[in-house]
Design a protein that fits this description.
The chain is globular and about 50 Å long. It has one domain: NADH Oxidase (3-Layer(aba) Sandwich), CATH 3.40.109. By secondary structure, it is of the alpha+beta class. Helix 1 packs across helix 4 and helix 3 runs antiparallel to helix 5. The longest helix has 19 residues. The chain is built from five helices and four strands. Bound molecules: flavin mononucleotide. Flavin mononucleotide binds next to strand 3.
């Protein structure tokens, strides 16, 4: 048994961006555990600004696919989770909500992989005109930023797991 055989490590290394899905629905208990994993992510000062929109309505998924210029796979995926930041009351000038939502998104993708699903991270915030097209589809209020959307489902393509590290990018004690 090596560290690589550990199931958590296998899920982290095995997670790839999968952009083809079967139409199999995602069971309710799996959806809930994905969200529980998202809520379990660390957040700066424990402020927990992340909120999630669970999208399964085919019409909404299709509208998102139309609005997101690299989101065609949302026409196939049975599920999407929009990872959003509620910025109301968040300290002015502090953008740690971006990191908080990124941590939540990564937890969703790794948990999905661990449970036999696949997914892909679709950026929304700071991308124009994508962001402006997606916000009305999801009906988010002005104080809410849609950081990214995870397209999720049973994968219909396979990719090799990640392996190895880039020695040039590892520094010892000082840069
Ligand atoms: C911040 C961020 C934004 C991304 N946005 C998109 C996107 O809009 N569309 C897409 O197809 N993939 C997107 N991806 C997925 C990357 O293209 C993918 O992670 C990268 O090519 C590496 O492949 P891998 O995930 O299989 O390791 C995004 C990933 C990150 C971390």
């Amino acid at each position: 048994m090596t560290p690589r055989d550990n199931q958590t490590i296998a899920a982290i290394l095995g997670r790839r961006s999968i952009r083809k899905f079967t139409s199999d629905p995602v069971p309710g208990d799996i959806k809930r555990i994905l969200l529980e994993c998202a809520f379990a992510a660390p957040s700066a000062h424990g402020r927990r600004p992340c909120e999630f929109i669970v999208i399964e309505d085919r019409a909404v998924l299709d509208d998102l696919a139309e609005a997101h210029d690299s989101g065609k796979m949302l026409r196939q995926s049975p599920l999407a989770i929009a990872v959003c930041a509620q910025k109301e009351g968040y300290p002015e000038g502090d953008r740690a909500w971006v990191e908080d939502c990124a941590a939540a998104m990564e937890n969703i993708l790794i948990a999905a992989r661990a449970l036999g699903l696949e997914g892909v991270w679709l950026k929304v915030m700071d991308r124009h005109p994508r962001n402006e097209k997606i916000r009305p589809v999801l009906a988010v209020p002005p104080s809410v930023e849609v950081v990214a959307i995870a397209a999720l489902g049973k994968g219909a393509e396979e990719k090799t797991p990640h392996e190895g590290l880039d020695e040039k990018k590892i520094h010892s004690n000082r840069w």
